[in-house]
Amino acid sequence: MSDPTRRTRGEELLLARISAAAGRERLGRRLATYAAAAYTTSTAGTARAKALLALVRHVGSAGAAHTRDAARLDLYENGLTVAVKGRIHVVRYDTTSVYRTEATRPGGTAHALTDVDGERVVLRGGPEQGEAPEWWSGIERGVVGARLPRALAALARGERLAFGEVWLTGEEIGWGEVRARWPRVRRLRTGPGAVGLDIDGTWHELGATGSGIPGLLVLRALVEHLGPGRSGERFHPDVNGST
Length: 243
Prior knowledge:
By secondary structure, the protein is an alpha+beta fold. 21% of the residues lie in helices and 32% in strands. It is built from three helices and 16 strands.
């Protein structure tokens, strides 16, 4: 009887390719492996989806992803790899942009990350739906941990940071005609198709373009860090929060 835990030749070759790709981009130590749901598109939005997957579950859970095109997600210290349809996409936490995008089912959520070649890899599901909080919280911690210190250092130097239409400095945040100093800012809200900012108890919505803002994870972390009563605190991502 064959050993069910023993890798096949194809699995060994895939692992070797993943490890080589991760090594070239210096992703560091592998932390976890998941069965992934994803599809890829070009950043210009002109390419059709190359693979469509529906669920994300941890490797070792009962059954594989119920889809024709299964993907493998490996999390590393400095990034992640997504293996789908024979391709290995490498994402570095310190250079990727994270976007919200429409999910494949009503009320769902998906997140897109840019890989090292500039292509978007869309990961389906998220912690707000109770789906695979382990993999998304790991990605969130990785991105914020890599990007937040640099963003705070830039603000300390007096620089102005931009996240799509949203801009911020060490003293204030705003977009369009909306502008507020940090003591007036309570929190940032993100959801499917919209971004809102609570200023003195009143919500100001950015609107539909909010879903296209790159770096929402870092933007949210900065608001958490710079808002009233939080200055100087270490940011800890909320695994049950939105991007």
